[in-house]
Specification:
Layout: H1 2-13, H2 24-52, H3 78-92, H4 98-124, H5 132-152, H6 165-168, E1 185-187, E2 195-197, H7 200-203, H8 214-235, H9 241-260, H10 263-268, H11 280-298, H12 307-324, H13 331-334, H14 336-359, H15 371-377, H16 382-402
Length: 407
């Protein structure tokens, strides 16, 4: 809203400093500061409110050190993250930008699913909460919205560089690109010709089948949204792990979003230019500030847990950002922590079922899954586990960033 106010003041009254709001970098910087202030200052008030309403976490006995002391700690702290994200976005982002609209819908949609789950857990005093099938239906619903919007909305386009060198000679950088087009292209890291078109999965049969590419594209989007949101949910098991890892991930994606939306840098780095995607940087800045501010209260010993209200929302937002900037194939790298945690659960469950069927008793690969609980069982303090996972997350983020040039 302030963006439009200062735009009006600049156009009508040449108000001093109003032009600063035209710059994405300035608005992103202000957004991250505001979100940090909201999450740290008002976060305490929300925690006290949750404690007053007895929104405490019920803890199952898993034999983990320090687990009993966490009983009664307020949950639903994801409300802090959601509010601290949306307020600066509403103030500083272009609210008519389709990518911003899509991310706001994602935040509210996944937040509602997570909130319902947390509320039912507290009300029933157990860890079941919302039935798994309803969570999956909600995730599929969001995937449908995102997939259909990405495929059919006229404002979601890409621009490709002109191949005719004579035509491309111009003093205006904009003229080096063809007009914006609808496309199902994405990028694959580490490959020189790193663009991949989902429609090619069907057009090899007949070029005319390209108009049915949505039959391939939308299910893939649904899978990504579901997988990443569940990955974030599994990672949220010890104090500060999910929030800290997610902050590293989204700050990495912010760089890709800014580059992809900047016609000069996208041309210099030879990455796909996506018109209007730079505005995603504002959203990510507010989101990152909210996550870091939440860590003020979520690091060991946690004063609040994010609950599914936070973890499902975090995963949904990260998935949609990656899809929007055509970097979904980077998810296994940049979201490596989520990937490892999910993989550990899948391996544990699969091996247990296989050995139970074959030997009559289930056997385990890890002492406990997800993976962070395995290290807890080995006697490593959760603060050390979290710090080491953060370090791995930073290392993976660096690998993701170098894909801008290493191909």
């Amino acid at each position: 809203m302030l963006y439009y106010l200062f735009q009006y003041l600049e156009n009508e009254y040449q108000f001093p400093g109003a032009s600063l709001f035209q710059f994405i970098t300035f608005r992103a910087a202000v957004a991250i500061i505001v979100s940090l202030l909201i999450s740290t200052i008002y976060g305490k008030r929300i925690i006290n409110f949750l404690r007053k309403k007895q929104m405490g976490e019920s803890i199952r006995e898993l034999g983990l050190e320090g687990q009993a002391q966490k009983a009664g700690t307020p949950t639903m702290g994801g409300i802090i993250i959601i509010l601290a994200t949306l307020v600066p976005v509403l103030l500083f982002a272009k609210l008519d930008n389709i990518y911003v609209i899509l991310l706001i819908i994602t935040t509210l949609w996944m937040g509602a699913i997570g909130f319902t789950d947390d509320y039912l857990k507290i009300k029933r005093k157990d860890k079941e909460g919302l039935a798994g099938k309803f969570k999956v239906i909600g995730q599929i619903g969001l995937g449908l919205i995102v997939g259909c919007t990405m495929y059919f909305h006229e404002d979601i386009t890409i621009k490709e560089e002109k191949t005719d060198t004579i035509e491309a000679v111009s003093s205006e950088k904009q003229s080096d690109f063809n007009p914006a087009i609808k496309s199902t292209k994405t990028t694959i890291p580490f490959f020189k010709n790193n663009e991949f078109d989902y429609s090619s999965l069907i057009t090899w049969i007949d070029p005319g089948f390209g108009k049915y590419a949505w039959l391939i594209f939308i299910p893939i989007v649904i899978f990504i949204v579901t997988a990443v949101s569940n990955g974030a949910n599994l990672t949220d098991g010890i104090d500060g792990l999910a929030a800290g890892s997610s902050a590293i991930i989204v700050l990495t994606l912010a760089l890709f979003a800014w580059v992809s939306g900047n016609i000069i840098f996208s041309d210099y780095l030879n990455v796909m230019y996506i018109p209007n995607s730079g505005e995603i940087t504002i959203y990510i800045a507010g989101f990152a500030g909210a996550l870091v501010g939440f860590l003020w209260y979520n690091t060991f010993p946690a004063q609040v847990f994010m609950g599914d209200t936070g973890s499902l929302t975090i995963g949904g937002i990260i998935a949609v950002i990656a899809i929007a900037i055509r970097k979904e194939f980077l998810i296994p790298i940049v979201c490596g922590i989520f990937f490892i945690e999910t993989l550990s659960v899948m391996m544990q469950v699969s091996w247990f079922k296989y050995t139970r069927k074959k030997y009559g008793e289930g056997r385990r690969i890890f002492l406990m899954s997800p993976l962070h609980h395995h290290y807890q069982k080995k006697g490593i303090h959760e603060s050390k586990i979290v710090a080491r996972f953060w370090i791995i997350g930073i290392f993976l983020a660096i690998i993701a960033v170098i894909t801008l040039k290493v191909r």
